[in-house]
Amino acid sequence: MSELYRDPVYDGATDPRVVVDASGRWWMFYTQRRASLEDAGPGVSWIHGSRIGVATSVDGLGWEYQGTLEPAASDLALEPGPPPAEVDRTHWAPEVVWDGERWRMFLTEIDGTPDRWPGFRRTIVEYTSADLRRWSRRGPLALSSDRVIDAAVARTPDGAWRLWYKDEAADSVTMVASSADFAAWSLDGVAIGGRPHEGPTAFELGGSWWMIVDEWRGMGVYRSDDGVGWTRQGDPDAVILASAPGDAQGSHGAHIQHGDDLWFYFFRTATDGAAHGATGERRRSAVHRVRLDVEAGNLVVRGSESGR
């Protein structure tokens, strides 16, 4: 499966979210992991210390790097070129949605550059924008714990906005909150339980609602009639975008509806090429996409990155 986009700074593009603006321009927001940096620090420092990379496209296929979203006071602004060598916070997994009047971003923020997984506070913070370049901070959301990451937001058929997210303090399952107007959120408990997972994305297609989650071995798929109650597609071990010969499994992605097509952008870790010099890890990752469809009541992968 061919690569669609690679980050030109650190070669660690992950967690892509793609939207199309009113002019028809495609925007990709992604976690810019510092995969190629030799002196990122010990442990998982290279996965932290990341900014949000931004790329644009005229067709969703050929992408041009635009820079990173950099803090300006408490807000964010798109700045060309690479991010600073030293940062005071980590940004992960941007969720970007249009609410009918403005763009909203729900961003995972972590203080500093942790070198290990446990023991560090993780918060989902809301921003708004008129142009996808300058973002005004609205503030952190009060959710089920202080270990929350990977927001996904959609308006469900009952008119409520729902926010799904991974809660690392709740065995790393998907929790959900709901709001009528983004002003206040009601905590509604577990949306998807079972085995640990992350990176939810939810959408309507073919008369049903679907949620895709990253199980680190491929993607688990769930179906819903109303975007509230979810049933797993297939048996508990069934996944889409599992690993194939020469490819790692698909990881943390998000959908975009464009015309009659539902595209799913996600990332894979490279299985070829040089290993990282300092650690021997296969850190490099790239963005891919596939087209999704509904066949006989199931969500299926159909078509390639190009749609041809």
In terms of topology, how is this protein built?
Blueprint: E1 13-20, E2 26-32, E3 51-57, E4 63-72, E5 75-79, E6 89-98, E7 103-111, E8 122-129, E9 134-140, E10 148-155, E11 161-167, E12 173-179, E13 186-192, E14 198-205, E15 208-214, E16 219-224, E17 231-232, E18 251-258, E19 261-269, E20 285-295, E21 298-301
Antiparallel strand pairs: 1-2, 2-3, 3-4, 4-5, 5-9, 6-7, 7-8, 8-9, 10-11, 11-12, 12-13, 14-15, 15-16, 16-17, 18-19, 19-20, 20-21
CATH superfamily: Glycosyl hydrolase domain, family 43
Q: What order do the helices and strands follow?
A: EEEEEEEEEEEEEEEEEEEEE
Please identify the top-level CATH class.
Mainly Beta
Strand residue percentage:
over 45%
At CATH level 3, the topology is Tachylectin-2, Chain A
Instruction: Compute the average pLDDT.
Output: 95
Given the helix and strand composition, which structural class is it?
mainly beta
Q: What Rg is obtained from the alpha carbons, in whole angstroms?
A: 18 Å
Kindly report the spatial arrangement of strands forming the biggest sheet.
1-2-3-4-5-9-8-7-6
Kindly state the percentage of residues in helix: under 10%
Described by the principal axes of the CA atoms, the overall outline is globular
Question: How far is it from the N-terminal to the C-terminal residue, by CA?
Answer: 13 Å
Number of discrete domains: 1
- The CATH architecture can be given as 5 Propeller
Largest sheet: 9 strands, antiparallel
Work out the number of β strands: 21
Please count the helical segments.
Answer: 0
